[in-house]
Fold this sequence. Notes:
- The structure is a homodimer.
- Chain A is of the alpha+beta class.
- The first copy, chain A, has one domain (about 25-125): Alpha-Beta Plaits.
- Chain A has 5 helices and 6 strands, in the order αβααββααβββ.
- Chain A has helices spanning about 15-20, 35-45, 50-55, 85-95, 100-105; strands spanning about 25-30, 60-70, 75-80, 110, 125, 125-130.
- In chain A, strands 1, 2, 3, 4 and 5 form a 5-stranded antiparallel sheet that branches.
- The radius of gyration of chain A is 16 Å and the shape is globular.
- Chain A starts with 14 loop residues before the first helix and ends with a strand.
- Chains A and B meet through strand 1, helix 2, helix 3, strand 2 and strand 3 of A and strand 1, helix 2, helix 3, strand 2 and strand 3 of B.
- Strand 2 (about 60-70) of chain A pairs antiparallel with strand 6 of chain B.
Amino acid sequence: MTATTAIYGETNPSPQDLGKMPIRRYGSVVEIRKEKEQYYRELHANGWNGVMERIKKSNIQNYSIFIHEIEGKKYLFSYFEYIGNDFDGDMAKIASDKETRRWWKETDPCQKPLTATPDGSNWSVMEPVFLLE
Amino acid sequence: MTATTAIYGETNPSPQDLGKMPIRRYGSVVEIRKEKEQYYRELHANGWNGVMERIKKSNIQNYSIFIHEIEGKKYLFSYFEYIGNDFDGDMAKIASDKETRRWWKETDPCQKPLTATPDGSNWSVMEPVFLLE
């Protein structure tokens, strides 16, 4: 194993500096179960209105999900931007939203977490190494 | 193998509709050689000025790279937005830029393409399945 250390600079702001920026970018990854891929695509082509509105009200914007196969397995990669001032509070509002909870009952079984995540979410948050605004 | 088909809708615009949008979002993935990870981090913490300027002049904005380990290997995931009207032309200007070519001599050996890509780039472009602006 090769040990690596995070390096910060002009084009990779430290977590502290990122936290001060008006837009904070999140990249995440999760495996998708191949037998559920088609259903996941159906759901996401026409996301439920209430779920979409709750995301926007929680100060999330510019939210993309991509899919790609790596070594025979399929993965989802998400990118979104958070522009509020209370990330945990805004996420809690999403997590307690009734329609979102119904939505997750559909989407959760499509996903297979890479590892157990601290907050119980299926998605693993990735580490940023570069940012050019 | 489970056959899947792309599904387009309100929250997953078709390639044709995406092409008409003022901002076009690209997600890509490549493996990073673990023995080169530290050097890649060093390079990207302070991207060379000329390379960064050439990217911006080619109508690319909001460019993030993230790193994450999947099943014992490390991968880089990039997200950027293209706001110009001639993607191929703008990319060709990057590819012919002298400083960028020197930069790629440093970054290319850090990466291991998932598969041979049409344009000879190390990065594999991922398929979008969701967009909430």
